[in-house]
Amino acid sequence: MAANLYTLSWASETLSRALVARSDCDILAELIVLREQGTESKNIDQHFEKEREKVRNADHNERSFAIAFQNAMENMNQAVWIPRTNNFLDLGCAPGGFAQYLLQKNKRAHGIGISLPCSQGGYGFGVTDWGYLARYKLHWVDLTSFDLAPSIPKPISSSHSYPPLPFKSSSRDLVVCDAQWVFNPDNLNRSWNWTRLIISQLLIALRAVSPGGSILIRLSCVERTLTGRILLALCRISDLVRTVKSTQFQTIRSYFYVLAQRVHPQSDECKSLISALEQLWYTMTFEGESGYGRDIRAEDEELITTDEEMLSENGLLTIIQLGTPIWEIQYDALCYFLAKRGVV
Length: 344
Prior knowledge:
Layout: H1 8-11, H2 14-20, H3 26-39, H4 42-57, H5 62-79, E1 87-91, H6 97-105, E2 110-115, H7 130-133, E3 136-140, E4 172-177, H8 185-189, H9 193-208, E5 209-220, H10 225-237, E6 238-244, E7 255-263, H11 268-286, H12 298-301, H13 307-310, H14 313-340
Parallel strand pairs: 1-2, 1-4, 2-3, 4-5
Antiparallel strand pairs: 5-7, 6-7
Helix pairs in contact: 3-14, 5-6, 9-11
GO molecular function: methyltransferase activity
Domain Ribosomal RNA methyltransferase FtsJ: 76-225
Protein name: Ribosomal RNA methyltransferase FtsJ domain-containing protein
């Protein structure tokens, strides 16, 4: 999976350097050292390669993955109460664990799922209960294939046809964004597709969420510059933003979830954010020498949140407050994981 990390956005250390220079962010500095120890170990590389091989070679494992993610959401719900939903949108829904959890918790809940087809490298759907499936509509489609910048004219050379979004605007009280990078030709050709996928999910979520609704989105590395910008942007358009990570599932990994509650999609701040995200999506989809998109740079990212806001005292304090619980969970898990394998 390393190919998708070689991007300008991922390599940026603007935020991480500012954080580790502070006396109130020692946990991040310690975590970075621990990560480097794991990265340098061939034993750890072999472990993860075996794990990836298991996933690639496993047959009909969608059901077990769905149960694992369902349990992860149950675990996260104990830390931050995930709002009860009646109509939710589930982006990157396969293998279906989050959908299964939400449908089980509320017998009147209905959901719409969008996930990458298996033929393009996506996961299969592991929810088999007909009672749940009767309240859930699944669409197999690439999230990035929608026209997510309808206000920007497309290049004449573009022959792409855009499917309509399968929901009414501002109609979902909860939007779950959990799409993951996978190996397929487009992702390998566009090294920036992980960033493009995040931006695509944000755009879809902001169009789908109802006033006062919630967005639960998966991000990676709180200290990553782009992640920090997104966290602060969500704070600007929501009344309450919290971070959460399962303490029982994939705890050593750097990803986590952000729960933005009481979102204001009709606010001027949100409209401005949507406009910025549309420009970034267009840049990553159509610009560049070949017209196939290009990686976004720091000045592009500042459309989301400026360096001035991110590196301000309030900005850094907010990111530290949101990041500390995540860093602590990963640090404790990594300590145990590496010690068990004789690395530390």
